[in-house]
Design brief:
3 helices; single chain; two-stranded antiparallel sheet
Length: 116
């Protein structure tokens, strides 16, 4: 994982969903993992069979917010994230809007139904 500068508000280029490729939004990781698979809210909910309830938690099943360390050495433990890291993660959008059908085909080589 590339490092991140919390104050700049930028998102590292490799901070993206391992399932759908979403970038620039909040990502979650499995709890207590050393090489986490990062997932966006939609993919994490699918993976866990659970829904995010922001009124009571920021966890999705066994997935917790993926907050990278500034040095790029990995991710903070769930209860160890510094305030600047929490603020950085909270500033990210929950999810990005899905691309329009033509953009989807251009980006992924398939249309929304899965046809090439």
């Amino acid at each position: 994982m590339n490092g991140v500068n919390y104050a700049s508000g930028t998102v590292p280029p490799d901070y993206r969903c391992a399932s759908c490729g979403a970038h620039g939004c909040k990502l979650w990781r499995p709890y207590q993992t050393t090489m986490p698979r990062l997932l966006c809210v939609v993919c994490a909910e699918q993976d866990q069979g659970d829904r995010l309830d922001t009124s009571s938690s920021d966890q999705i099943g066994w997935y917790v917010p993926a907050v990278p360390m500034e040095e790029g050495d990995g991710f903070w433990g769930y209860t160890s994230v510094p305030a600047a890291g929490v603020a950085w993660w909270k500033s990210l959008p929950m999810a990005l809007p899905m691309p329009k059908p033509l953009e989807f085909k251009t980006l992924y080589g398939i249309d929304a139904s899965g046809d090439r």
